[in-house]
Amino acid sequence: MQDSFAKNFADRSQFMSFLDEIEERADWMVCPTDSLYLTAAEMNPAACRKMKQAEDGEQLLNDTRLNTGLFIKADGMDYPLGTTAMKTLQNRARIYGNALQDMDRPTFAGVLNDCLQVTSGQALLRLQEGKIRAVHGGDPKDYAVLPMPEIFEAANLYLEESYGKVVFSAGYFSHELVTAAWQLQEPELLDTYRDLLLQYGEQASEELSACIRVQSSDVASSGANICCFLQEGPYKRPLILGSEIKLEHTNGATVEKFFGNLTQIFSCYQESIKNLERLFQLEIHYPDSAMEGTMKKVGIGKQLITQTVEHFRATHGTGKANGYELYCGICEAVFFAQCKNQSAKNLIDLEEMVARCLSLRFEDYDFPGEYR
Q1: I want to staple 219 with a disulfide (CB 3.0 to 4.6 A). Which of 8, 134, 159, 292 is the partner?
Q2: What is the mean pLDDT of residues 220-239?
């Protein structure tokens, strides 16, 4: 029930059983947006007393006070508000700004109530583990529900039926984001990459696997997205192969559409690997500057840029490099972030930034000057 709850899984059946249990206890509620009403916990003693009487109510109340400190009334009942609901609630109320976070809870609740009162249409609320975790638009054109168990079962079923050796490598659950990853020992996929390296005098690591990661969220942190990447060497360093195959929770998105995206995995892999070929033909004279400029452009943090560039200097030197070597160096940022135990959401955001580097012209940042 805690807002900070997160759990990792190494076993597929345990992961799927956990998602089924969560879904069985959860619910979706639809009500008019202008009927929603927020109160600060300290201003609603009646709701606090009622919650304490429920099973695990004391713990739920304490966690709410520790985090949002808010209740939301929907269909005549007061529910504690989870931290993941804050962004979607503000979007639904059509109010934005950092100043909101500096208000005390009663004032903040009052401001949102005024905005909700003048917002038409339906609201779709996600009730999960005792708290409202999201407040989406409830009209048909707005948020589309894609049940987590169905999404991840569809992914596992498709991969096992389509590829020879498939191994479930990791699952992750939080109230914000759910992810699962599989390793594929698919010769045709891996040989395409090995042949490309051999063509340019390079050799792939003997420990090489193609990986698929699926991620989704009930609270608008992610669509039902599919990410393709390679893992090399004993430390399974990632090589991000471009942008995700995305399905946003809008415009009538369905599990069937997600399954259709799964069928694009093979062609996505092949195309992404072939797109790496242009990097081999690109000569970078000042890799330090090119790497720093590219990573800054996509929004990667200064500390991680410094660590990544310094590692590249230590392993490659300060001489020329081709674009492929430069991009592999940039991908090391993901490995360093993993070593720092970054959250799953932060790692996925970082992978998206690294993938965007492929759309930039490295040569635009290839200029002389001392790296700082």
Answers
A1: 134
A2: 90
